[in-house]
Amino acid sequence: MSAQGVVVADTTPLNYLILIGQVEVLRPLFGQVVIPDAVLAELSHPKAPAAVASWLLNLPGWLTVEKVARLDQTIQLGQGETEAISLAVERKISIVLMDERRGRSAAETRGLLAVGTLNILDLADERGLVDGVAMLEALKQTTFRADSELLDRFEACMKARKS
Fold first, then answer.
1. ∠ CA 156-3-62 to the nearest 5 degrees?
2. Longest C-alpha distance within the chain, in Å?
3. Is the dihedral of CA 50, 55, 42, 19 positive or negative?
4. Any bridge partners for residue 115, and if so which?
5. What is the CB neighbour count within 10 angstroms for residue 61?
6. How far apart are CA 84 and CA 72, in angstroms?
7. CA-CA distances (angstroms) from residue 90 to 28, 80, 128, 130?
8. Looking at the predicted structure, is the pLDDT value of residue 7 above 50?
9. Is 63 exposed, middle or buried (0-12, 13-18, 19+ CB in 10 A)?
10. Tens of pLDDT along 107-134?
């Protein structure tokens, strides 16, 4: 996985990284993060968590919002996922940050590497940017949902790295 460059992000990884106070790891991990208009709209939803609304008031310089020129109508997902995948394909950006299983599958069938929130935390832990085990615990306190076996595998990997 590229240490620097450009990635496209869907809503959920940004949302959860903001909630656990770790959204800033995206810059050293990936460089520039691009989001489509629909992701900004989803993050700006009136029912979004207060921490997300607060973060949106002062977007970091490493994040840009772009309009999708050609929306791929064959992607039958939510607007955020559809625009994120379409933007990545359009801009020839190979990595898309996305959690939803169907979205990840749609991205991968289009030749993209789908990287989820757990992957981001694992990579940040591996690079010494965060305490991954502590961040997994923080993530579990949010509305983040993942199979307990998957969470256990990530936790075991992070613990093994420390020993």
1. 110
2. 48
3. negative
4. 97
5. 7
6. 10
7. 24, 15, 33, 32
8. yes
9. middle
10. 999 999 999 999 999 999 999 999 999 9
Nearest-angstrom CA–CA distance, 99 and 84: 12
Tell whether pTM > 0.85: yes
Q: Give dist(CA 75, CA 88) in Å, integer.
A: 13
Sheet holding 5-9, edge to edge: 63-66, 31-36, 5-9, 95-97, 113-115
Positions of E strands within 48-132:
63-66, 95-97, 113-115
Strands 31-36 and 63-66: parallel
Determine the length of the chain: 163
Beta-strand ranges (E) seen in 13-134 are 31-36, 63-66, 95-97, 113-115
pLDDT at 76: 87
Model confidence pLDDT, tens digit, residues 17-70: 999 999 999 999 999 999 999 999 999 999 999 999 999 999 999 999 999 999
- Whether residue 75 contacts residue 82, with contact meaning beta carbons closer than 8 Å, is answered with yes
CB contact set of 47 (below 8 Å; sequence gap of 6+): none
* Residue in this structure with the two tokens 């973060």, named with its chain if needed: 55
